Amino acid sequence: MRFLSMIRVEETTDQQPSQRLMDEMMALIGELSAAGVLLDTAGLLPSSHGARVRSQHGRITVTDGPFAEAREVIGGYAILKADSLDEALAVTRRFLQVHGDEWDIECEVRPIEESPSGGCGRA
Question: Which domain of life is it from (predicted)?
Answer without folding.
Answer: Bacteria
